[in-house]
Amino acid sequence: MDRGQLLKIAEEFGSPIYIYDAEKIESQYKRLTSAFKSVKKLKINYAVKALSNISILKFFNTLGSGIDTVSMQEVQLGLAAGFKPQQIIFTPNGVSLHEIEEASKLGVQINIDNLSILEQFGTKHPKTPVCIRINPHVMAGGNSNISVGHIDSKFGISIHQIPHLLRIIDNTKMNINGIHMHTGSDILDIDVFLYASEILFETAKQFKNLEFIDFGSGFKVPYKAGDIETNIEELGQKLSDKFNDFCKEYGKDLTLAFEPGKFLVSESGFFLAQVNSVKQTTSTVFAQVDSGFNHLIRPMFYGSHHDIINISNPEGRERFYTVVGYICETDTFGNNRRINEINDGDILCFKNAGAYCFSMASNYNSRFKPAEVLWYNNKAHLIRKRETFDDILNNQIAIDFAPKKEKQLVK
Questions:
Q1: Three-state DSSP class for 249?
Q2: 338 is in an annotated binding site
Q3: CATH dotted code for 23-264
């Protein structure tokens, strides 16, 4: 999308606003499937938590994708978007047996990462196919908050607990049809990922009725010019060779599955905010926008970088600005950024706003959540209306409090 298209959308629908480019989503999807074209059976399950708007899910359905879900609500969204139960994998963490059973009743693929829950589920439902999430104890990811395969992680069943796992399966006679891992997000070193895959292949040999092996995702995308990203083509070639060799050894063509979220939608997204004012202090020039971490929490949450561009004045002289929001706490999008000269009313564009941005938005400070637009076939389609005050009050119950009567003094 170009600057003019973005400005036109901001003018038509207002700011702040999220915009997603369907063409970029499709190109990333095709890039991933092409990287693993030598695998006979490939399944891409889009990670719904990255961006869960139902129109985005419907678009992935048209591409032939499945979906990866982590809550009953995401399962229900997937079904509402037209996905068949067999196209959905349910990979929750820390949920009750009841929630897993409810998802299972809908016919989706269950993925369990807890020995206790596994034993309870297998005892009650031994014939239901179950995937097992393994923790390979491999540290990968760009930040400790998004690295989930290490030894202290709450995710997955430890490879050191495999004997216990096999005992549960033997005792319950349950049906294990898949094995899964996810090491973390923003993976830079594909050799680390390949090392973890070897651990998963060795573990898979313990199970005789597998239908698929799921390698999660976590592929890194570039956040700025010259940034490092996961070499998906090199990974595709090397992992495909290893996977095909394993299938020959296993004696069966299994499905190779992935669960990308950020890789598919991050670069498709743009977040636009309008400058309320430019404030000069003794040491800093602040560009204050009509948004805050209630709409885009990632920079404050775990220090993520989003390029910030002044699309209203692209030829202006570059100056240093600290871009901040209107939330009444420290609320910084970027410190000392070189940005073309900013004036009141300018529109700033935050790049890489497709993944984990709107989906983590809130109503903090009782602010409205922004609108969402999908740019599809050279047209802007509104896919979420901007909230109103009625939305803030929705589900709240106001109690009528009778005024307290003042006590009369007895003389």
A1: helix
A2: no
A3: 3.20.20.10
In the chain, domain spans: 23-264, 266-388
Query: Quick one: pLDDT at residue 411?
Result: 60
pTM above 0.85, yes or no: yes
Structure confidence at residue 403 (pLDDT): 81
Is 207 a residue whose pLDDT tops 90?
yes
Homologous superfamily, domain 266-388 = Lyase, Ornithine Decarboxylase; Chain A, domain 1 (2.40.37.10)
Residue with tokens 């996961």: 230
Asked if residue 18 belongs to a known ligand binding site, the reply is: no
Instruction: Name which of 25, 31, 30, 32 is nearest 58 in CA terms.
Output: 25
| Helix boundaries (H) for 138-256 | 162-172, 190-204, 232-250
Residues 240-258, mean pLDDT to the nearest whole number: 97
Please compute, for residue 33, the number of CA atoms within 13 A of its CA located in the half-sphere on the CB side: 17
**pLDDT tens digit string along 150-174?**
456 788 999 999 999 999 999 999 9
Q: Point out the catalytic residue in the list 131, 247, 328, 357.
A: 328
Q: Can you tell me the mean pLDDT for 76-105?
A: 97
- Pairing label, strands 308-310, 347-350: antiparallel
Q: Is 234 annotated as a binding residue?
A: no
122 is in an annotated binding site: no
Catalytic status, residue 328: yes
pLDDT value, residue 182: 79
329 is in an annotated binding site: yes
Please classify residue 350 by burial: count the beta carbons closer than 10 Å to its beta carbon, then call 0-12 exposed, 13-18 middle and 19+ buried: buried
Instruction: Count CB neighbours of 239 within 10 A.
Output: 20
- The yes-or-no verdict on residue 142 having pLDDT over 50 is no
> Is the distance from CB of 20 to CB of 330 less than 8 angstroms?
no
Residue 188 has pLDDT above 80, yes or no: no
